[in-house]
Amino acid sequence: MGNSELVARSLAAVWHPCTQMKHHETLPLVPVARAEGAWLYDFGGKRYFDAISSWWVNLFGHCNPRINAALRHQLEKFEHVMLAGFTHEPVIELSERLSKLAPRGLGHCFYGSDGASSVEIALKMSFHFWRNSGQIGKTGFLSLENSYHGETLGALSITDIALFKDAYASLLHHSSTVPSPDWRFAEPGEYSLQYALRCAEKLESHLSAHHQVISAFIVEPLVQCAGGMAMYHPEYLKRARLLCDQYQVHLIADEIAVGFGRTGTLFACQQAGITPDFLCLSKGITGGYLPLSVVMTTDTIYQAFYHDEVTRGFLHSHSYSGNALSCSAALAALDIFEEDKVIQTNYAKSAQLTKMAKDLSQHPKVKGFRNTGMIWAFEVNNSDKNFSKNFSRAALDSGLLLRPLGNTVYFMPPYIINEQEMHFLVEKTQGLLEKF
Ligand SMILES: *Cc1c(COP(=O)(O)O)cnc(C)c1O
Q1: Domain extent for 202
Q2: I need a surface site. Which of 100, 176, 190, 370 has the fewest CB within 10 A?
Q3: 333 C-alpha vs ligand 1 centroid, how far in Å?
Q4: Which of 141, 147, 149 to mutate to test the pocket of ligand 1 (most atoms within 8 A of CB)?
């Protein structure tokens, strides 16, 4: 079967995500025949470097031999069983290991199937906690400007990206936003720390005025990814933790994108030394293999639901909660983190790629070049409103999978990226800039 036949069949039968399907009249769709390491291969043998880890999920490359082996091993035992009334080793071991690795005090793991559903779980648990505690007025949620927390109605309510939200505005629960500590908005001469502190003051005024009706404040720690790879100082998280405690508001850390080493530490919250009330994880959790998400929470939250009365319990469920194959892939990914000392190795890789990108960062069309851990981003000075589409298409032509967010081009490569691949990525991107 060739590329063009598959494209035609896909466009007829598959409604692709995050896509205006009509654009595929001109925009190429890439059928993947196989994938290995950081590379995707089409049916004509052309290969593409997966510089965005297949939408930020793939940490250790495609067809990773160790994750493959773990899945085969689990398949010999069983694939999935329901998690209400039953349990199994992969889900127990994953919960125990995550609790040891995450910020202290997050000893209870509740499983969902994707990122957005873990956000829904955290929102519902927070609201239900206050309800069980007799505080029925706490029904609102607070998020950062330019935040992204997923596309289901609850998660979209606390997302602040007009492109995804506006069409559904009348369906959404009311929520509020406070200014993002994104340092690109700092005054000239103002450090990212000073700007973070100034934003924390705005958070304080908001909480002091409205805390009685706010259940939780949700943040993407250190990097607001879908909102344009906006990076901020960890001090903001420290202040947010203190203020949430002071005003009796839960702090939800949405580490769906930034968790599992993306920002340089295993979890981004660790750079601020804080424990959130809820930690949402998904995307990289299975190394990019299978859908799985988890909400980790504290004993204080857990105890508020522990009661003889059934309706005080958390009755939320997903058919595939704690899927055994997904948990096995997640355990194999954690093994790789340990065996290959991935966090340490990534420090060196991060510095190396940043150094290689020096010319790129100083290119006359490049603004705001920034890096946190294994994320690099910059704005391209180009006023074409189709910049993103045209740039990704040109990138594909030169063998790169890149999907700019508006004018923001970013790299979020799998952690197995090697020196040669870094050169390839930087050089091809520099070449692309000559055309835009
Ligand atoms: C991707 C993402 C989500 C949603 O996860 P899905 O698995 O796509 O539902 C939520 N929050 C953040 C920060 C994300 O990057």
Answers
A1: 69-339
A2: 100
A3: 19
A4: 149
